[in-house]
Amino acid sequence: MRIAIGTNDRQNINPHHFGESRYFYVVEISVHARVVACRANPWWNLKVSQRAPRIAALLGDCEAIVIRGIVKQGLDILSQTFRSVLLTRLTEVDDIAARLARGEMAEFQTYNPATQKFERQQL
């Protein structure tokens, strides 16, 4: 599984809105976590309606995104693209990836489009 994590400093998850991240790490999750790409986000300063579809295309090879925050309009668009939208309060990208690789889901909530809420569950 490939996941995308937004970051501004290349070490910590962007603590604000996912779409405003300057970079997206693409992480391959299997037995271990391995960063396979770091993609610049040239659209971080556009309106949500303009940037969300572009980000979805940029990260189209990912099955999930991990966020700390996201605006409702962006969530509506991106939840149609990705199998999972995971919300966390963890901060370090390496820690997030390692926990996902180990299947440790206690620090994550998954967005449920049917209820429009984040819920605790497995990937």
3D architecture notes:
The chain has 3 helices and 7 strands; from the N terminus they run βββαβαβαββ. With 123 residues, the protein is α/β, with parallel strands linked by helices. The chain has one domain (2-119): 2-Layer Sandwich (Nucleotidyltransferase, domain 5). Strands 3-2-1-4-5-6-7 form a 7-stranded mixed sheet. α2 (72-81) links the parallel β4 (64-67) and β5. α1 (48-58) runs parallel beside α2 (72-81). The N and C termini lie close together (10 Å).
List low-confidence stretches: none
Mean pLDDT: 94
Q: What is the H/E order?
A: EEEHEHEHEE
Number of helix segments?
3
| Topology-level CATH name | Nucleotidyltransferase, domain 5
The secondary-structure class comes to alpha/beta
Within CATH, the superfamily carries the name Dinitrogenase iron-molybdenum cofactor biosynthesis domain
How is the biggest beta sheet arranged?
7 strands, mixed
Q: What is the CA-based Rg, rounded?
A: 13 Å
What best-fitting shape do the alpha-carbon axes yield? globular
Whole-number tally of structural domains: 1
Kindly state the percentage of residues in helix: 10-25%
CATH architecture call: 2-Layer Sandwich
Report the span from N to C terminus.
Answer: 10 Å
Output the keywords.
single chain; 123 residues; alpha/beta; Nucleotidyltransferase, domain 5; seven-stranded mixed sheet; 3 helices; 7 strands; 31% strand
